[in-house]
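=== RUN LOG ===
request id: a7f3
mode: sequence -> structure
chains: 1
length: 141
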Amino acid sequence: TFGWDNFTGRAKVFMQWGESEEYMDYSVMSCPVDCIHWVGREELQALEHVTAKHAYDEGGQLPCPMSNRNGFACGGKVKDPFDMAQTFLRKVSKDRKRARERIQKAAGQVQRIRFRIQEAFRKLPPAVRQLAWPWLPALLA
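=== RESULT ===
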């Protein structure tokens, strides 16, 4: 279930959970650059997202693990994809929390506006209410 990715020029897993665990262990042990790791589904999604974004930002090229290990990294310090994934997951978690808080705050504001409209409506003289909403007295009866 490993194959060659022509876009990046590297081997890549194309079908997770397509082989036996024994085969996967053998692949991990035989990787010359120690770049095959066991990850869970949620972490896998985050890793695929951040590495795809990083590859796009770098013109389709991921850093070479062998060059990095031997000190030949170009362009400064190479980012660890696992750190990038954790940073991304923390950001998503914060964004979701902030969105929930905004929704709760908005629900409270909607309720306050509703009460203010009801109060303003009650303060209207009955003749104005009758002109604006002629069907309302029948509804309230």
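=== NOTES ===
The mean pLDDT is 77.
The helical segments are 21-30, 41-57, 65-69, 81-123, 126-132, 136-140.
=== END ===
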